[in-house]
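Notes from hallway chat w/ T.B., transcribed later so I don't forget. T.B. wanted the structure written out for a chain they're using in a teaching module, and asked if we could keep both sequence and C-alpha coordinates in one place. Agreed to drop them here.
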Amino acid sequence: MTDDGNLPGVPPGSGAPGADHGWGMLRPRTRSEAHWAEEQEVIGPGLQAVMLLSRLCVAAADGAELVDVDGNRLIDFQGAGGVNSLGHAEPRFTAALAEELTRATAGAFGSPARLDMVRALRDFLPEELDTVQLYSGGTEAVEAALRLAKSVTGGHEFLSFWGGFHGKTMGSLALTAGARSGLGPLPPGYFSAPYANCYRCPFKLTAPSCGFACVEHARDVIKENSTGALAAIVVEPVQGRSGNVVPPPGYLTALGEVAREFDALLVADEMMTGFGRTGAAFAYQHEEARPDVLTVGKGMGGGYPVTGVIAARETMAAAPFSEPSASSSSFGAFPMACRAVATTTTVLTDDKLVENAAERGREMLHRLADLVELAPLVGDVRGAGLALGIELVADKATREPAPKSVVQRVYLQLMEAGVLVMLGGNTLRLYPPLTLGREQAETAVGIIRETLLRATGGEG
Protein backbone atom coordinates (compact mmCIF):
# COMPACT_ATOMS: atom_id res chain seq x y z
CA MET A 1 0.00 0.00 0.00
CA THR A 2 1.29 3.46 -0.85
CA ASP A 3 1.80 6.31 1.65
CA ASP A 4 -1.51 7.89 0.64
CA GLY A 5 -3.40 4.71 1.61
CA ASN A 6 -3.98 3.41 -1.92
CA LEU A 7 -2.93 0.17 -3.53
CA PRO A 8 -0.31 0.51 -6.26
CA GLY A 9 -1.81 1.59 -9.57
CA VAL A 10 -5.05 2.86 -8.04
CA PRO A 11 -5.68 6.60 -8.11
CA PRO A 12 -7.05 8.26 -4.98
CA GLY A 13 -10.74 9.14 -4.85
CA SER A 14 -11.88 6.52 -7.35
CA GLY A 15 -15.30 6.22 -5.76
CA ALA A 16 -18.68 6.14 -7.42
CA PRO A 17 -20.31 9.48 -8.28
CA GLY A 18 -21.92 10.96 -5.21
CA ALA A 19 -20.29 8.46 -2.87
CA ASP A 20 -18.00 9.62 -0.09
CA HIS A 21 -16.47 6.26 0.81
CA GLY A 22 -13.90 6.34 -2.01
CA TRP A 23 -14.97 3.00 -3.48
CA GLY A 24 -16.71 1.92 -6.64
CA MET A 25 -15.77 0.51 -10.00
CA LEU A 26 -15.68 3.27 -12.61
CA ARG A 27 -13.08 2.07 -15.05
CA PRO A 28 -14.15 -0.22 -17.88
CA ARG A 29 -12.88 -3.75 -17.28
CA THR A 30 -11.46 -4.22 -20.76
CA ARG A 31 -8.11 -5.58 -19.57
CA SER A 32 -9.86 -7.96 -17.18
CA GLU A 33 -12.10 -9.32 -19.94
CA ALA A 34 -9.14 -9.88 -22.28
CA HIS A 35 -7.09 -11.42 -19.46
CA TRP A 36 -9.93 -13.75 -18.46
CA ALA A 37 -10.63 -14.81 -22.04
CA GLU A 38 -7.00 -15.75 -22.64
CA GLU A 39 -6.85 -17.79 -19.42
CA GLN A 40 -9.95 -19.74 -20.43
CA GLU A 41 -8.25 -20.95 -23.61
CA VAL A 42 -6.41 -23.47 -21.40
CA ILE A 43 -8.23 -23.52 -18.03
CA GLY A 44 -10.90 -26.22 -17.86
CA PRO A 45 -14.55 -25.65 -16.91
CA GLY A 46 -16.02 -26.02 -13.43
CA LEU A 47 -14.38 -23.10 -11.66
CA GLN A 48 -16.11 -21.61 -8.60
CA ALA A 49 -19.38 -19.95 -9.55
CA VAL A 50 -18.41 -16.61 -8.02
CA MET A 51 -15.18 -16.59 -10.02
CA LEU A 52 -17.09 -17.23 -13.24
CA LEU A 53 -19.61 -14.55 -12.31
CA SER A 54 -17.12 -11.84 -11.39
CA ARG A 55 -14.34 -12.63 -13.89
CA LEU A 56 -12.13 -10.73 -11.51
CA CYS A 57 -8.43 -10.67 -12.41
CA VAL A 58 -6.35 -9.49 -9.45
CA ALA A 59 -3.15 -7.53 -10.02
CA ALA A 60 -2.29 -6.70 -6.40
CA ALA A 61 -3.65 -7.13 -2.88
CA ASP A 62 -2.96 -5.72 0.56
CA GLY A 63 -4.80 -6.59 3.78
CA ALA A 64 -8.50 -6.55 2.93
CA GLU A 65 -8.07 -4.71 -0.37
CA LEU A 66 -7.73 -5.94 -3.94
CA VAL A 67 -6.91 -4.09 -7.15
CA ASP A 68 -7.76 -5.65 -10.50
CA VAL A 69 -5.76 -5.39 -13.72
CA ASP A 70 -7.85 -2.36 -14.74
CA GLY A 71 -7.01 -0.50 -11.52
CA ASN A 72 -10.40 -0.99 -9.85
CA ARG A 73 -10.23 -1.17 -6.06
CA LEU A 74 -12.27 -3.58 -3.93
CA ILE A 75 -12.71 -4.46 -0.26
CA ASP A 76 -12.25 -8.22 -0.14
CA PHE A 77 -14.92 -9.80 2.05
CA GLN A 78 -14.81 -12.97 -0.04
CA GLY A 79 -11.46 -13.89 1.47
CA ALA A 80 -11.29 -17.10 -0.59
CA GLY A 81 -14.08 -18.49 1.59
CA GLY A 82 -12.24 -17.88 4.84
CA VAL A 83 -8.67 -18.59 3.71
CA ASN A 84 -7.42 -15.01 4.00
CA SER A 85 -7.09 -14.95 7.78
CA LEU A 86 -4.07 -12.62 8.04
CA GLY A 87 -4.95 -10.35 5.13
CA HIS A 88 -3.22 -10.26 1.77
CA ALA A 89 0.56 -9.80 1.72
CA GLU A 90 0.95 -9.72 5.51
CA PRO A 91 4.64 -8.64 5.88
CA ARG A 92 5.69 -11.21 8.49
CA PHE A 93 4.00 -13.99 6.55
CA THR A 94 5.51 -13.09 3.18
CA ALA A 95 8.97 -12.59 4.71
CA ALA A 96 8.86 -15.96 6.51
CA LEU A 97 7.79 -17.87 3.39
CA ALA A 98 10.29 -16.04 1.20
CA GLU A 99 13.08 -17.02 3.56
CA GLU A 100 11.85 -20.61 3.70
CA LEU A 101 12.05 -20.80 -0.09
CA THR A 102 15.83 -20.43 0.16
CA ARG A 103 16.05 -23.61 2.26
CA ALA A 104 14.93 -27.15 1.46
CA THR A 105 11.41 -26.88 0.05
CA ALA A 106 10.51 -30.54 -0.57
CA GLY A 107 10.30 -33.53 1.72
CA ALA A 108 8.46 -34.21 4.98
CA PHE A 109 11.58 -34.68 7.07
CA GLY A 110 12.11 -33.01 10.41
CA SER A 111 12.95 -29.35 9.82
CA PRO A 112 13.30 -26.02 11.67
CA ALA A 113 9.97 -25.05 10.11
CA ARG A 114 8.21 -28.12 11.48
CA LEU A 115 9.71 -27.61 14.93
CA ASP A 116 8.58 -23.98 14.93
CA MET A 117 5.10 -25.11 13.87
CA VAL A 118 4.95 -27.67 16.68
CA ARG A 119 5.97 -25.06 19.24
CA ALA A 120 3.36 -22.57 17.97
CA LEU A 121 0.59 -25.18 17.87
CA ARG A 122 1.43 -26.59 21.31
CA ASP A 123 0.15 -23.36 22.86
CA PHE A 124 -2.71 -22.82 20.40
CA LEU A 125 -4.36 -26.24 20.25
CA PRO A 126 -6.92 -27.28 22.89
CA GLU A 127 -5.36 -29.25 25.72
CA GLU A 128 -7.50 -32.30 24.96
CA LEU A 129 -6.64 -32.31 21.21
CA ASP A 130 -2.87 -32.27 21.14
CA THR A 131 -1.67 -33.90 17.89
CA VAL A 132 -1.94 -32.91 14.23
CA GLN A 133 -1.36 -34.58 10.89
CA LEU A 134 -0.98 -32.29 7.85
CA TYR A 135 -2.48 -32.55 4.37
CA SER A 136 -2.77 -30.37 1.27
CA GLY A 137 -6.51 -29.91 0.69
CA GLY A 138 -9.70 -29.92 2.68
CA THR A 139 -11.22 -33.03 1.15
CA GLU A 140 -7.96 -34.94 1.77
CA ALA A 141 -8.10 -34.07 5.46
CA VAL A 142 -11.76 -35.07 5.70
CA GLU A 143 -11.00 -38.43 4.04
CA ALA A 144 -8.20 -38.93 6.58
CA ALA A 145 -10.61 -38.16 9.43
CA LEU A 146 -12.99 -40.82 8.11
CA ARG A 147 -10.15 -43.37 8.06
CA LEU A 148 -9.22 -42.35 11.59
CA ALA A 149 -12.81 -42.81 12.79
CA LYS A 150 -12.91 -46.27 11.21
CA SER A 151 -9.62 -47.15 12.88
CA VAL A 152 -10.80 -46.05 16.32
CA THR A 153 -14.30 -47.55 16.28
CA GLY A 154 -14.13 -50.43 13.83
CA GLY A 155 -17.29 -48.99 12.28
CA HIS A 156 -17.80 -47.83 8.72
CA GLU A 157 -20.97 -45.71 8.76
CA PHE A 158 -21.24 -41.93 8.93
CA LEU A 159 -23.96 -39.39 9.68
CA SER A 160 -23.73 -35.91 8.15
CA PHE A 161 -26.20 -33.04 7.74
CA TRP A 162 -28.29 -31.33 5.11
CA GLY A 163 -26.67 -28.19 3.78
CA GLY A 164 -23.16 -29.15 4.85
CA PHE A 165 -20.08 -29.25 2.67
CA HIS A 166 -17.12 -31.55 3.26
CA GLY A 167 -15.40 -32.02 -0.10
CA LYS A 168 -15.57 -33.58 -3.55
CA THR A 169 -13.76 -36.92 -3.28
CA MET A 170 -15.63 -40.14 -2.71
CA GLY A 171 -16.06 -40.23 1.08
CA SER A 172 -16.31 -36.48 1.60
CA LEU A 173 -18.76 -36.18 -1.29
CA ALA A 174 -20.92 -38.87 0.30
CA LEU A 175 -21.02 -36.66 3.42
CA THR A 176 -22.10 -33.64 1.37
CA ALA A 177 -25.88 -33.92 1.08
CA GLY A 178 -27.35 -31.94 -1.79
CA ALA A 179 -24.23 -31.94 -4.00
CA ARG A 180 -24.24 -35.48 -5.34
CA SER A 181 -26.48 -35.19 -8.41
CA GLY A 182 -25.07 -37.11 -11.35
CA LEU A 183 -22.16 -38.48 -9.31
CA GLY A 184 -23.54 -41.77 -8.03
CA PRO A 185 -23.37 -44.47 -6.96
CA LEU A 186 -21.95 -43.41 -3.62
CA PRO A 187 -20.32 -45.71 -1.07
CA PRO A 188 -22.79 -47.39 1.29
CA GLY A 189 -23.14 -46.50 4.94
CA TYR A 190 -23.60 -42.74 4.60
CA PHE A 191 -26.81 -41.08 5.74
CA SER A 192 -27.86 -37.55 6.60
CA ALA A 193 -30.25 -35.55 8.75
CA PRO A 194 -31.44 -31.92 8.97
CA TYR A 195 -28.99 -29.40 10.43
CA ALA A 196 -30.04 -26.98 13.17
CA ASN A 197 -30.89 -24.20 10.72
CA CYS A 198 -33.42 -22.37 12.87
CA TYR A 199 -34.38 -19.89 10.13
CA ARG A 200 -35.46 -22.84 7.97
CA CYS A 201 -36.41 -25.44 10.57
CA PRO A 202 -37.93 -28.43 8.71
CA PHE A 203 -39.98 -29.20 11.82
CA LYS A 204 -41.46 -25.66 11.89
CA LEU A 205 -40.37 -25.27 15.52
CA THR A 206 -38.52 -22.56 17.45
CA ALA A 207 -35.41 -22.89 19.59
CA PRO A 208 -34.98 -23.45 22.48
CA SER A 209 -38.56 -24.63 23.09
CA CYS A 210 -38.09 -27.25 20.33
CA GLY A 211 -35.94 -29.33 22.67
CA PHE A 212 -33.48 -29.96 19.81
CA ALA A 213 -36.00 -31.85 17.71
CA CYS A 214 -33.36 -32.00 14.96
CA VAL A 215 -30.99 -33.88 17.27
CA GLU A 216 -33.75 -36.31 18.23
CA HIS A 217 -34.45 -36.83 14.55
CA ALA A 218 -30.73 -37.48 13.90
CA ARG A 219 -30.83 -40.14 16.62
CA ASP A 220 -33.81 -41.75 14.87
CA VAL A 221 -32.03 -41.62 11.50
CA ILE A 222 -29.14 -43.58 13.00
CA LYS A 223 -31.45 -46.11 14.61
CA GLU A 224 -33.39 -46.68 11.40
CA ASN A 225 -30.44 -46.70 8.96
CA SER A 226 -27.39 -47.98 10.82
CA THR A 227 -26.37 -51.62 10.91
CA GLY A 228 -24.76 -50.98 14.26
CA ALA A 229 -21.46 -49.84 12.76
CA LEU A 230 -21.56 -46.05 13.12
CA ALA A 231 -18.02 -44.68 13.04
CA ALA A 232 -18.68 -40.94 13.35
CA ILE A 233 -21.06 -38.03 13.25
CA VAL A 234 -19.48 -35.38 11.01
CA VAL A 235 -20.71 -31.82 11.43
CA GLU A 236 -19.69 -28.23 10.77
CA PRO A 237 -19.98 -26.04 13.90
CA VAL A 238 -21.11 -23.30 11.50
CA GLN A 239 -22.35 -24.37 8.08
CA GLY A 240 -20.49 -22.35 5.46
CA ARG A 241 -21.95 -23.37 2.11
CA SER A 242 -25.51 -22.84 3.35
CA GLY A 243 -24.74 -19.24 4.29
CA ASN A 244 -22.84 -19.29 7.60
CA VAL A 245 -25.69 -20.92 9.48
CA VAL A 246 -25.04 -20.76 13.23
CA PRO A 247 -26.82 -23.46 15.28
CA PRO A 248 -28.30 -22.65 18.70
CA PRO A 249 -26.10 -23.06 21.81
CA GLY A 250 -25.85 -26.65 22.98
CA TYR A 251 -26.33 -28.23 19.55
CA LEU A 252 -22.83 -29.66 19.22
CA THR A 253 -22.90 -30.86 22.81
CA ALA A 254 -26.16 -32.70 22.13
CA LEU A 255 -24.69 -34.29 18.99
CA GLY A 256 -21.70 -35.42 21.04
CA GLU A 257 -24.05 -37.22 23.39
CA VAL A 258 -25.65 -39.01 20.43
CA ALA A 259 -22.24 -40.03 19.13
CA ARG A 260 -21.29 -41.51 22.49
CA GLU A 261 -24.62 -43.33 22.67
CA PHE A 262 -23.67 -45.20 19.49
CA ASP A 263 -19.97 -45.64 20.40
CA ALA A 264 -19.02 -43.30 17.57
CA LEU A 265 -16.75 -40.25 17.29
CA LEU A 266 -17.85 -36.66 16.90
CA VAL A 267 -15.87 -35.09 14.05
CA ALA A 268 -16.10 -31.30 13.89
CA ASP A 269 -15.29 -30.10 10.39
CA GLU A 270 -13.65 -26.77 11.23
CA MET A 271 -12.13 -26.30 7.80
CA MET A 272 -13.73 -22.85 7.55
CA THR A 273 -14.27 -22.03 11.23
CA GLY A 274 -10.96 -23.07 12.80
CA PHE A 275 -8.04 -20.80 13.65
CA GLY A 276 -10.06 -17.86 14.89
CA ARG A 277 -12.64 -17.23 12.19
CA THR A 278 -15.66 -17.28 14.54
CA GLY A 279 -14.07 -15.34 17.40
CA ALA A 280 -12.79 -18.45 19.19
CA ALA A 281 -9.71 -20.46 18.36
CA PHE A 282 -12.08 -23.23 17.25
CA ALA A 283 -15.82 -22.77 16.81
CA TYR A 284 -16.80 -25.71 19.01
CA GLN A 285 -15.32 -23.81 21.96
CA HIS A 286 -18.29 -21.44 21.98
CA GLU A 287 -20.04 -24.14 24.01
CA GLU A 288 -19.10 -27.15 26.13
CA ALA A 289 -18.85 -29.56 23.19
CA ARG A 290 -16.07 -32.16 23.19
CA PRO A 291 -15.37 -33.34 19.63
CA ASP A 292 -12.99 -36.26 19.19
CA VAL A 293 -11.52 -35.08 15.89
CA LEU A 294 -11.18 -31.71 14.13
CA THR A 295 -10.53 -31.16 10.45
CA VAL A 296 -8.91 -27.79 9.81
CA GLY A 297 -7.56 -25.78 6.90
CA LYS A 298 -8.26 -22.53 5.06
CA GLY A 299 -7.21 -19.90 7.64
CA MET A 300 -4.53 -22.06 9.28
CA GLY A 301 -2.12 -21.46 6.40
CA GLY A 302 -2.87 -17.80 5.68
CA GLY A 303 -3.19 -18.57 1.97
CA TYR A 304 -0.76 -21.47 1.67
CA PRO A 305 -2.56 -24.76 0.81
CA VAL A 306 -2.29 -26.73 4.02
CA THR A 307 -4.95 -28.58 6.02
CA GLY A 308 -4.91 -30.95 8.96
CA VAL A 309 -6.56 -33.50 11.21
CA ILE A 310 -6.35 -32.76 14.94
CA ALA A 311 -7.08 -35.28 17.68
CA ALA A 312 -5.84 -36.57 21.02
CA ARG A 313 -2.68 -38.65 20.87
CA GLU A 314 -4.49 -41.80 22.03
CA THR A 315 -7.06 -41.31 19.24
CA MET A 316 -4.37 -40.85 16.58
CA ALA A 317 -2.64 -44.01 17.85
CA ALA A 318 -5.43 -46.25 16.54
CA ALA A 319 -4.42 -48.75 13.86
CA PRO A 320 -4.35 -48.96 10.92
CA PHE A 321 -4.36 -45.14 10.83
CA SER A 322 -1.19 -44.98 12.93
CA GLU A 323 0.81 -47.51 10.93
CA PRO A 324 3.80 -46.24 8.87
CA SER A 325 2.63 -44.35 5.75
CA ALA A 326 -1.03 -45.10 6.55
CA SER A 327 -2.00 -41.50 7.35
CA SER A 328 0.69 -39.58 5.47
CA SER A 329 0.28 -37.23 2.51
CA SER A 330 2.64 -36.51 -0.41
CA PHE A 331 2.97 -32.86 0.54
CA GLY A 332 2.01 -33.05 4.21
CA ALA A 333 4.49 -31.35 6.57
CA PHE A 334 6.70 -30.00 3.78
CA PRO A 335 8.77 -27.08 5.13
CA MET A 336 6.74 -24.40 3.31
CA ALA A 337 3.49 -25.74 4.73
CA CYS A 338 4.93 -25.92 8.23
CA ARG A 339 6.33 -22.40 7.99
CA ALA A 340 2.94 -21.11 6.83
CA VAL A 341 1.17 -22.72 9.80
CA ALA A 342 3.83 -21.60 12.28
CA THR A 343 3.75 -18.00 11.08
CA THR A 344 -0.03 -17.79 10.82
CA THR A 345 -0.52 -19.22 14.31
CA THR A 346 2.10 -16.89 15.79
CA VAL A 347 0.57 -13.79 14.19
CA LEU A 348 -2.93 -14.84 15.28
CA THR A 349 -1.68 -15.12 18.84
CA ASP A 350 0.65 -12.12 18.99
CA ASP A 351 -1.84 -9.72 17.41
CA LYS A 352 -4.85 -11.12 19.32
CA LEU A 353 -6.69 -11.64 16.04
CA VAL A 354 -9.14 -14.15 17.52
CA GLU A 355 -10.34 -11.45 19.90
CA ASN A 356 -10.41 -8.93 17.05
CA ALA A 357 -12.58 -11.27 14.99
CA ALA A 358 -15.05 -11.55 17.86
CA GLU A 359 -15.23 -7.78 18.38
CA ARG A 360 -15.43 -6.76 14.70
CA GLY A 361 -17.98 -9.49 14.06
CA ARG A 362 -20.27 -8.31 16.87
CA GLU A 363 -20.10 -4.73 15.58
CA MET A 364 -20.83 -5.70 11.99
CA LEU A 365 -23.68 -8.02 12.95
CA HIS A 366 -25.23 -5.22 15.02
CA ARG A 367 -25.03 -2.74 12.14
CA LEU A 368 -26.46 -5.20 9.61
CA ALA A 369 -29.25 -6.65 11.77
CA ASP A 370 -31.92 -4.07 10.93
CA LEU A 371 -31.68 -4.92 7.22
CA VAL A 372 -34.11 -7.73 8.02
CA GLU A 373 -36.74 -5.04 8.58
CA LEU A 374 -35.52 -2.36 6.18
CA ALA A 375 -34.10 -4.05 3.08
CA PRO A 376 -36.63 -5.55 0.63
CA LEU A 377 -34.65 -8.71 -0.05
CA VAL A 378 -33.09 -9.50 3.33
CA GLY A 379 -34.71 -12.33 5.25
CA ASP A 380 -32.04 -13.14 7.83
CA VAL A 381 -28.73 -11.76 9.09
CA ARG A 382 -26.53 -14.07 11.16
CA GLY A 383 -22.97 -14.93 11.95
CA ALA A 384 -20.23 -15.84 14.38
CA GLY A 385 -17.13 -13.68 14.50
CA LEU A 386 -16.07 -12.81 10.98
CA ALA A 387 -18.18 -15.47 9.27
CA LEU A 388 -21.39 -13.58 8.47
CA GLY A 389 -24.40 -14.43 6.33
CA ILE A 390 -27.11 -12.25 4.78
CA GLU A 391 -29.89 -14.43 3.39
CA LEU A 392 -31.90 -13.02 0.49
CA VAL A 393 -35.55 -13.97 0.06
CA ALA A 394 -38.27 -13.33 -2.49
CA ASP A 395 -40.94 -13.20 0.24
CA LYS A 396 -40.22 -12.40 3.89
CA ALA A 397 -43.40 -14.04 5.13
CA THR A 398 -42.94 -17.38 3.37
CA ARG A 399 -39.11 -17.16 3.37
CA GLU A 400 -39.05 -18.26 -0.26
CA PRO A 401 -35.40 -18.01 -1.36
CA ALA A 402 -34.49 -15.24 -3.76
CA PRO A 403 -33.94 -16.57 -7.30
CA LYS A 404 -30.38 -17.19 -8.43
CA SER A 405 -30.64 -14.35 -10.95
CA VAL A 406 -31.49 -11.87 -8.19
CA VAL A 407 -28.72 -13.12 -5.90
CA GLN A 408 -26.19 -12.87 -8.71
CA ARG A 409 -27.36 -9.37 -9.59
CA VAL A 410 -26.91 -8.23 -5.96
CA TYR A 411 -23.46 -9.82 -5.92
CA LEU A 412 -22.46 -7.81 -8.99
CA GLN A 413 -24.00 -4.62 -7.60
CA LEU A 414 -21.93 -5.01 -4.45
CA MET A 415 -18.84 -5.63 -6.55
CA GLU A 416 -19.51 -2.51 -8.61
CA ALA A 417 -19.93 -0.55 -5.37
CA GLY A 418 -16.59 -1.82 -4.09
CA VAL A 419 -17.20 -4.88 -1.88
CA LEU A 420 -16.50 -8.44 -2.95
CA VAL A 421 -18.47 -11.15 -1.12
CA MET A 422 -18.92 -14.93 -1.33
CA LEU A 423 -22.19 -16.62 -2.26
CA GLY A 424 -23.83 -19.70 -0.81
CA GLY A 425 -27.19 -20.55 -2.32
CA ASN A 426 -29.34 -17.47 -1.74
CA THR A 427 -26.99 -16.04 0.92
CA LEU A 428 -24.25 -13.42 0.78
CA ARG A 429 -21.33 -14.75 2.83
CA LEU A 430 -18.80 -12.36 4.36
CA TYR A 431 -15.25 -13.50 5.25
CA PRO A 432 -13.07 -10.47 6.02
CA PRO A 433 -9.50 -11.04 7.19
CA LEU A 434 -9.19 -11.36 10.96
CA THR A 435 -6.99 -8.26 10.85
CA LEU A 436 -9.98 -6.12 9.84
CA GLY A 437 -10.01 -2.71 11.50
CA ARG A 438 -13.07 -0.79 12.70
CA GLU A 439 -12.86 1.94 10.06
CA GLN A 440 -12.60 -0.45 7.14
CA ALA A 441 -15.39 -2.60 8.57
CA GLU A 442 -17.64 0.45 8.83
CA THR A 443 -16.86 1.44 5.25
CA ALA A 444 -17.72 -2.00 3.93
CA VAL A 445 -20.87 -2.28 6.02
CA GLY A 446 -21.96 1.14 4.75
CA ILE A 447 -21.59 -0.01 1.14
CA ILE A 448 -23.46 -3.25 1.86
CA ARG A 449 -26.28 -1.35 3.56
CA GLU A 450 -26.60 1.19 0.72
CA THR A 451 -26.68 -1.58 -1.87
CA LEU A 452 -29.18 -3.82 -0.08
CA LEU A 453 -31.52 -0.99 0.86
CA ARG A 454 -31.86 -0.21 -2.86
CA ALA A 455 -31.93 -3.78 -4.19
CA THR A 456 -35.26 -5.35 -5.11
CA GLY A 457 -36.42 -8.54 -6.72
CA GLY A 458 -37.52 -6.71 -9.87
CA GLU A 459 -35.63 -6.30 -13.11
CA GLY A 460 -32.71 -3.89 -13.34
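Follow-up for T.B.: Residues 30-76+353-454 form a domain with the Aspartate Aminotransferase, domain 1 fold (CATH 3.90.1150.10). Might be a good example for the class.
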